[in-house]
Amino acid sequence: MKTLTATSSRLLASLFMLVLLFTAACGGKEGTVESVNQLYGTDSKTWKTDKEMDASGDKMKQTDAMEDQRVTFYANGQYNMMSGAQTMNGKYTFDQGAKTIMMMPEGGAQSSTFSVVTLTDDKLTLKGTDGSELRLEKE
Q: CA-to-CA distance for 136 and 67, rounded, in angstroms?
């Protein structure tokens, strides 16, 4: 059996570290749900639509209105959604443990609850009860 020399050991360790760093950098954080602060930043954070997927996972064609859609979450539990000339305000509740967000529009009798698939500093993926996904990115 051959023993490794000090140079071979260092080379092998360096190669191992390179593979680990590459894997960490390329793996992304898809599927990671970080703290609620990632949702609204310091005081507020605006998210814009990146892509929308239907329940079967197929990418949906974005209309101009969908591409212009923005949602801003505020630290005080309020949100504002803008799409073209239309604006909707309301309140939200984020449940870290259950990985859900409930949004209740002002004057609305019915709330919407979404599963939070990904929540990082610059990515937010929400999944509807029908299985469709809305992928947002930090503006």
A: 10
Predicted TM-score of the model (pTM)? 0.76
In which domain, by residue range, is 68 found? 37-138
The answer on pLDDT for 53 being more than 70 is yes
Higher pLDDT pick, 52 / 15: 52
Q: How many domains are there within the chain? A: 1
Residue 45, token pair as written in the block: 């954070």
Query: Six-digit token pair at 138?
Result: 């930090």
Is 30 within a domain?
no
Residue 23 has φ and ψ, to the nearest 5°, of -60, -45
Q: Does residue 24 lie in a domain region?
A: no
* Secondary-structure percent of the chain, ordered helix, strand, coil, rounded to 5: 20, 40, 35
